[in-house]
Amino acid sequence: MKELKIPFHSTISKSPVSLPKPKKQEHHYTHSISILIGGAAGTGIMTLEHILSDAFKRSGYFVFSTKEYMSRVRGGSNTTLLRIADGPINAPCWHVDLFIALDADAISHVHERLTDDTIVLADKNIKDEQIHIQSIPMLETVKKIGGLHYANSYVAGVLFGMFGITTVMLSQSIEAIFYEHNPQENETAMQEGFTYGKNLASMDIPKLPNPISTLKETMHLINGSSAAGFGFLIGGCNMITAYPMSPSTGVLNFMASMSKEFDLVVEQSEDEIASLNMVLGGWFGGARAMTSTSGGGFALMSEAMSLSGMSETPAVVYLAQRPGPATGLPTRSEQGDLNLAIHSGHGYFGRIVLAPGDLQECIDYGYLAFELADRYQMPVIYLSDQYLADSISMMERVDFSVYEQRRYIQTTDPSYDRYKFNDTGISLRGVPGLGDGLVVSSSHEHDERGQSTESYHVRENMVKKRKQKIDLTIFEAYEPSIMGKGSIALIGWGSTKGAITEVLKELNDPRLFHVHFFWVHPLNPEHLEVLKKTETNIVIENNVTGEFADILKSHDISIDHRILESNGFSFFADLLKEKLSNILKDLK
């Protein structure tokens, strides 16, 4: 028989892994402009987003983009927001400096986001009685070139012409994006737009930030889905089985795209029930497996979550949140599944819930999810949402070698007992075929061997054993990050991080500090002591009731204000600033 060896072999006796220390940001943005693009699905808005994001980045600017779109393949009215700055930027804004309407419906869709100073560009055939429109001959020009599908390149050229930016970088972006689809015609459309845009340069357009010449060599554009995927790969994921469901499908697509580069099994399961059960089978056989889903799909996984808890089989679930109940708003964003993640499944068993807040955290906690699942032999739910998954931002090159690799599988002998009692509650985990022991797993209550039992004495000991694991995860939980010092805490979790961070800088109020939770369950009470010493606690979260605020209250934390959003949008930095300012006025 071939001898098998366990790579990166480790034991529970080692201290938990340390995440790489976050790099200090050398840049803080001092000036930004916002560009909103609106049009129907199928008109190339996403392509225009990629062209402009890449071109502005190549030109030396920090870029952030996010989108809101309807749940239809064609039609409707969608928007993409692009923010350009001279430093890192990680939040959207509601009011915009420049709006580009690709059709007439787009103007009525976004009129609330336009101010008296917003410049509106639209084809010369589009009119509006209330809003001043700067007309451009978009449709007329692209029809001569070959069709409406060249409008995105034309609009990109108009923008670069207006801002007076050389087209060298824009041409490179167009060539990279359209290298298989008529690059010359797109280049021609862009140049036509650029020429026309130069005629608009005399308008009172917003001033661009100062570019940074070295930016394109040191920073990368990436969205939250891809960043999470890289984290899962660093964590050793070698199996993903999932049923597509917006907005989680981005991770499934990313992992599938990487399956030729890594030893990675990708399976589109027949439904969500099958997917998590297949994940458990993967871990039982020695794989590091995961599934991706959204709220409705995760609801179907409830029974398999309990199976993970009883059989003490690791699992990683990427749960990208969207508004419910039921189908709800399938392409919008919300932090509404926290209670679902914490309480899904019947019976008492442990699980860990992580919620990253930016691209670096997407990578860090994707890696950490697999480490924790393996270490504690329990399910780990990784909470993202549509906003974080789909937003594109910039991050520095990542050194993947700094992430420590561990594996907690053990070689078994004939006397091996899968659920043997010990001081930690975490028994040695073997897999079939690795050693001479018999590996028994059961969904029934079981004894140390793994054999089903109805002995109440054994039951009491097994309940105690599983509780020991929960106590250990609480003891070893990672602390929230704290930014600043003050008497008023702005408390957030997950994807609210960017908006809160920006508002904190904008308000520049010495009373304010930010407490950001990424480890949202189970909480270590010692980490909450800082919130018992404040004068005021303000919780900011993207759901109807304040689910995390209620969890903090259960830990005897006073919650003085809740700023909640549940309309399908993420938090916008400028609107959040207004709401906080109104609260702060009453606190003086």
Layout of helices and strands:
Layout: E1 32-41, H1 45-58, E2 62-68, E3 75-85, E4 98-101, H2 104-110, E5 119-123, E6 134-136, H3 138-145, H4 151-163, H5 168-177, H6 183-198, H7 215-218, E7 219-223, H8 224-234, E8 239-242, H9 249-257, E9 265-268, H10 272-284, E10 289-293, H11 295-300, H12 302-311, E11 315-321, H13 338-343, E12 352-354, H14 359-376, E13 379-385, H15 386-390, E14 392-396, H16 456-475, E15 481-483, E16 488-493, H17 497-507, E17 512-517, E18 519-521, E19 536-541, H18 547-554, E20 561-564, H19 573-587
Parallel strand pairs: 1-4, 4-5, 5-6, 8-9, 8-10, 10-11, 11-13, 12-13, 16-17, 16-19, 19-20
Antiparallel strand pairs: 1-3, 2-3, 7-14, 12-18, 15-17
Helix pairs in contact: 1-4, 1-5, 3-6, 4-6, 5-6, 8-9, 8-14, 10-12, 17-19
Structure description:
By secondary structure, the protein is of the alpha/beta class. The protein folds into three domains: 32-211, Pyruvate-ferredoxin oxidoreductase, PFOR, domain III (Pyruvate-ferredoxin Oxidoreductase, domain 3); 221-402, 3-Layer(aba) Sandwich (Rossmann fold); 481-587, Rossmann fold (3-Layer(aba) Sandwich). It is 35% helix and 18% strand. The chain has helices at 45-58, 104-110, 138-145, 151-163, 168-177, 183-198, 215-218, 224-234, 249-257, 272-284, 295-300, 302-311, 338-343, 359-376, 386-390, 456-475, 497-507, 547-554, 573-587, and strands at 32-41, 62-68, 75-85, 98-101, 119-123, 134-136, 219-223, 239-242, 265-268, 289-293, 315-321, 352-354, 379-385, 392-396, 481-483, 488-493, 512-517, 519-521, 536-541, 561-564. The chain has a seven-stranded mixed beta sheet, sandwiched between helices. Helix 18 links the parallel strand 19 (536-541) and strand 20. Helix 3 (138-145) packs antiparallel against helix 6 and helix 17 crosses helix 19. The protein is globular and about 85 Å long. The mean pLDDT is 94.
